[in-house]
Write a structure and sequence with these properties.
With about 350 residues, this protein is α+β, with helices and mostly antiparallel strands. About 25% of the residues lie in helices and about 35% in strands. Helix 4 (about 110-120) crosses helix 5. The chain is elongated and about 75 Å long. The relative contact order is 0.11.
Length: about 350
Amino acid sequence: MTNAMLELSAVGKSYDGQMAVEDVSLAVHKGEFIALMGPSGCGKTTTLRMIAGLETPTRGDIRLWGRRINDDHPWARDTPLVWQNYALFPFMTVRDNVEFGLKQRSVEAAIRRIKVDEWLERMGIAALAGRLPHQLSGGQRQRVALARALATEPELLLLDEPLSALDPHLKVRMQAELVRLHRELGIAFVCVTHSPSEAFAMADRVVIMNAGKVQQVGAPRALYRRAANSFVAEFLGGSNLVPGTVRQDGGRQVIDTAIGTFGVLEPAPSPGPATLVIGADKIVLSSIAPSNGGVAASVTTTDFNGASLTVFLECAGGQELKAVVASGAIEADAYTPGARVFASWSDDSGCLLYTSPSPRD
Ligand code: ADP
Ligand code: MG
């Protein structure tokens, strides 16, 4: 991609022959909010550390505004990283922590003072300026870490699971604060998170990684609508995956599966093995068989989160399905374990995945 601010091209990192990151290509544009997701150990932190200059890639190139920065020092590239545990300097006051990057860059004292005051004020921590990190709460430490990273006015901020150490209330508040900061500053954020809901609430684009490789990059809604492969669909968790075989039936395209034959509107490039993907929110449950058939199933368990109920089902042959039922539509006792129900969905709500998927943008 041209005119990207940051560009990673086939970047890899190995430690003693062991791959930590195998192949990451990614373009980040000015002012974008990118969420980087994937299971533990898939290489998210290593990727951020390479961008920050704390690790040197074993292969591939990292470019900032077109300039190769693989071997630049962290302070020369100005891409600060906010750590999961904040990593504040323990024997420095809040003020000295925030001032640190400015001193390193030999900014003159009078300007440092102005900038530090500005950031302490902006992050609501001016009253804590004289404290040491151990005298702060988790949320306050997070603010100091952000102020320290932002004081040098970088164009790109890297965040490694910035919300993971906070309690649930604070998490929601800090999430909103990050979104506000991002909007006000107009700089790019690349933020590692474990939680799809966090990523989807904050990011313009989401990058999903597995085993050191990028699986898919896309806008949050696009990823849910169209996962590039079954790893992504399963990782996001909102979909049902039913293996089968696609064929033409008259003028209609259908997929034969262990739980029935279903129409699929999405055109398939060729007949053959494929996986039918149906969003859990697209499945309708009823206690009597719907006119278009429906799949007979029994309820195994449910998960209620206040706004909706996820009903887990088992169909003939052991195929599992899950359906999300809005709170208002829940019939009393209809979904107790063992209850018999019918699951149905419309032909246009299913999409297809093929057995040898290629990651797509
Ligand atoms: P994530 O942040 O996605 O959980 P990491 O980037 O921390 O994953 O780690 C990716 C893989 O690289 C893991 O298997 C991890 O054990 C390994 N790894 C990370 N850092 C080092 C290191 N300094 N030396 C050896 N192996 C490492
Ligand atoms: Mg990590």
